[in-house]
Write a structure and sequence with these properties.
The complex is a heterodimer. Helix content of chain A is about 75%, strand content about 0%. By secondary structure, chain A is mainly alpha-helical. The two termini of chain A are about 50 Å apart. Helices cover about 65% and strands about 0% of the residues of chain B. In chain B, strands 1-2 form a two-stranded antiparallel sheet. About 0% of the residues of chain B have low confidence. Classes of the chains: A mainly alpha, B mainly alpha.
Chain lengths: ~325, ~400
Amino acid sequence: MNPATASSNKLDFRSRGFDFVSFAFTSLTGLATLLILAILAIILANVVWHGWGTFSWRFVTGSADQDMFDVNKAGILPMVIGTALRVLVMTLFVVPIGVITAVYLTEYAQSTAVTTRIIRGAVNNLAGVPSIVFGLFGLGFFISFIGGAMDAGRAEPHWGKPAILWASLTLAVMTLPLVIVATEESLRAITPGLREASLALGATKLETILKIVLPEALPGILTGGILAVGRAGGEVAPILFTGAAYYMRDLPKAATDQFMDLGYHVFILSTQSPDIEKTRPILFATVLALLLLTLSLNLIAVVVRARVRKRMRAGH
Amino acid sequence: MTNVPHNAKRTVGWMGIHRGHKARPVEWLAEKFIYLISLTAILMVFLIFVFVAREAMPLVMGKMNSAAARPVIAAKEMDKLKPDELRDYLGLTAKEFQQLDKEALTALMEVREEEAKEAPKDKDATVNTTEWKYLLGAHHWSDSRPEDRYVWQPIGRIHKYNLWPLIIGSLKTTIVALLFSVPLALAAAIYVSQLSSPSLKEWLKPAIELLSGVPSVVLGFFGLIVMATFLQGTFGYQSRLNAFVAGIALGLAVIPVVFSIAEDALTSVPRSYTQAALALGASKWQAAWQIVLPAAAPGVFAAVVLGFGRAIGETMVVLMASGNASIMSLSLFDSTRSITATIAAELAEAVFGGHHYRMLFLIGAMLFIVTFLTNLAGDLIMHRLKGRLEGRAK
């Protein structure tokens, strides 16, 4: 056994000195991490650098009445309002359904039951459906099927055409998993002791959920809502055929009106501009507005989530 | 989180009816209501498939005919046809057919005869291009160049719906995206979950996940306006927008997906594994590479699978940065067109309920099936992995 001992001694000796492989491995993976962050920084810096000059109060609050391809006149207020409206309507639908599903999954469902497993599978699957398929779904289900049924007996389609309501509902289906997962996480962060204390004092399960668990989980529910808004705010593919308009003279007034959208406007400015060099400042400023909207929402969600996780670790 | 004392006690009997609803009807109703609402997610996945496939159904069943010139039956021969044959020939629904009298039907048949006289006469004019053999097989089209045998060209006289240019376009951008993003994202996941200090990790993880907050239309814009010019200057290829540019921009959308799942899988490997390895004298990277990574291998695989699903389903990036020419080419530096971009670009122009419209729903349904299977696989792998790791950890 002498040679074996000798070789292990040798290994021992090497690992005490400078470990080249270890250094290379750590620095390579570290570099990859750095590269990803650098790309993110480059995108942000590039947009801010080129967009800041045009990004002004007048630009944000200007209407699109004038030429939307003219640097000195273009404004994005209708797009901001359109995006805000569709996201708001979406929130009204997605948050209640998402929160109730999360409550079922954490408070009622048995984690081993087949139904629970299928619900979880469906939630994960919904999160991975391509956004363009949501667009097709919105067109086939909400507009043709539901809108068509509501229009029965009407000569002109009133409901069965692209509208802000249908775009919002399509986005609600798309963001459902985000709300469910975020709410579930915060519900799980609450110590079982809190629920048990409430039950021991004679509260029923429903009372415990409504008065103890949900208020306690509010930050997580907010995170879910904010993440959903951030995600939906920048999505374009699902609203291409369900409600976004190239140009509208008026702001949407009814649920059946179409709307102008910030993300869709970025698409139009990048691909359909009559003179890309001239409209470049508007394009960058619009992208800047969109990024400010989605990234600030994401940042808020990240901060709230970090606090929830901290409490979860403290609680267990 | 394996302790379940708060929901261990369940109401008993059929749907809880023996005890629950008599003792506390509101509680019982609330539970059933919450249960029903929680089925929404399942319902939605089901509805998405049903309603996308529904629009494509007539095409799959061979009910659509896209031929520029259709076979014609002389109007005076109308009496020889059975009512059903006549209805099929004129393409009417049963209700419409009943409402028309004989004169109107004769008029319709005469219109068809007139149409036939003006229809193009070449060999492809009578071809129904929505048949499967034209969707998937090669064909010499009379109005395109002889070397273009696989063509997606839904405009013009003969609507050509060959799917290969789109499938290959989608695969090309997806492969570039995965080759670019998977190594980066996996390396970052290993670094963040295993090698960095805990305080650094608290910053790195959200920072990388912030990339998923960049909307895909912005990534598409960045690929189209900034990266395309830069990459063309660096590599000096011919067409400015191509599968390569789109793939790199697409990779930026895939990185956060692969990173999050791989990081999750690596973190779910019990700390005791690493600690045991370190106690035996392994260095940090040896523990990460030889112990943690093999233990989390299925999760890493799931991350790649889900990254593939994300890449092949992404629309705006590809629509904006790939150039959108539906040419059959294996070169990464040719302009390409993906399945998703085709739907986004063409649906607005397609006639509602026509064969082009239904064809776009058909490729949408195919896309849904592909991503459904990849998601299912990813989900099952992650579920098993976590079960195994948690089981062993006890």
